[in-house]
Design brief:
single chain; about 200 residues; mainly beta; 8-stranded antiparallel β-sheet; 2 helices; about 5% helix
Length: about 200
C-alpha cells in the first residue's frame, strides 16, 4: 500500500526538464518504502484541467523511501499555453495517486522563447482582473492600480520598467526603494499575466 509522506515542492527546472521528489510510506506500518521499484505515471495539466504532458516510467526509491524523478523533454513546454497557468503536477505510483500540487516554476528558457520583447503600444492603457482590480499603464512610465471594493475604491501609484516581455512595478512614494519590485507582469498573446505570490493571474483589456 502506498502513502505520501511529503509531496515535496521540489520542482527544479533545468533546461526543459523538471526534477521532482516524493516520499512513500507503507500505510500499515508507517515505515518508508525503501529500495522499492514502482511504476510511476506523471501528468502535467493547466488551470483548465487539460493535460499537456504525461509519461509513465519505472523508478526505485532510495534508502529513505524517496522517489527522485526527472520529468519532461525538450518539447514539454514548447507549445504550452502560458495564459492557462498555473500548471499542476500529478503523480501516481502503481496506479494509486500519491499527490497533486501546483507547479510554482517552469523551465525559464522554454518560457522565454514564447515571450518576445513587447512594443509599448501593446501594454499602454487599462487592464482588468476579475472586475475588481484595474491596472493602468501610462506613457510617462507611471502606473496606477485601482481596487474596487463594495463600499470604497483604493488607488496606488507606481513607476514601471519594461524588460523584454516583463513589466516590473516599483514604488512611487517618497520612502519607497526604487530597487524593490512590488509586482511583476508578463505580456503574452494579448494578455497580461500577473505574478502574485508565485501564482499567475490573467488580466484582459
Amino acid at each position: 500500500m502506498l502513502a505520501m509522506l511529503c509531496f515535496l515542492a521540489c520542482i527544479m527546472c533545468a533546461k526543459a526538464q523538471i526534477g521532482y521528489q516524493v516520499s512513500l510510506l507503507n500505510t500499515a506500518t508507517g515505515e518508508a518504502r525503501a529500495n522499492e521499484t514502482v511504476t510511476v505515471t506523471v501528468s502535467l495539466s493547466n488551470s483548465a484541467g487539460e493535460i499537456f504532458y504525461s509519461e509513465t516510467k519505472q523508478s526505485t526509491t532510495n534508502d529513505f523511501g524517496v522517489l527522485s524523478l526527472t520529468i519532461g523533454n525538450a518539447d514539454t513546454f514548447k507549445s504550452v499555453d502560458l495564459s492557462k497557468m498555473p500548471f499542476y503536477i500529478e503523480v501516481t505510483a502503481n496506479g494509486v495517486m500519491i499527490g497533486k500540487s501546483q507547479m510554482l516554476s517552469v523551465p525559464v528558457a522554454e518560457v522565454a522563447k514564447q515571450m518576445a520583447p513587447i512594443n509599448k503600444s501593446l501594454y499602454i492603457g487599462k487592464w482588468r482582473y476579475k472586475s475588481s482590480d484595474e491596472v493602468d499603464f501610462n506613457e510617462d512610465g507611471t502606473a496606477t492600480i485601482t481596487t474596487y471594493y463594495p463600499e470604497h475604491t483604493e488607488t496606488e501609484q507606481y513607476f514601471y520598467k519594461v524588460d523584454g516581455a516583463n513589466i516590473y512595478l516599483i514604488g512611487a512614494g517618497e520612502y519607497d526603494d526604487p530597487n524593490i519590485i512590488r509586482m511583476m507582469f508578463k505580456y503574452y498573446n494579448g494578455s497580461l499575466l500577473w505574478d502574485e505570490s508565485s501564482s499567475l493571474h490573467v488580466l484582459e483589456r
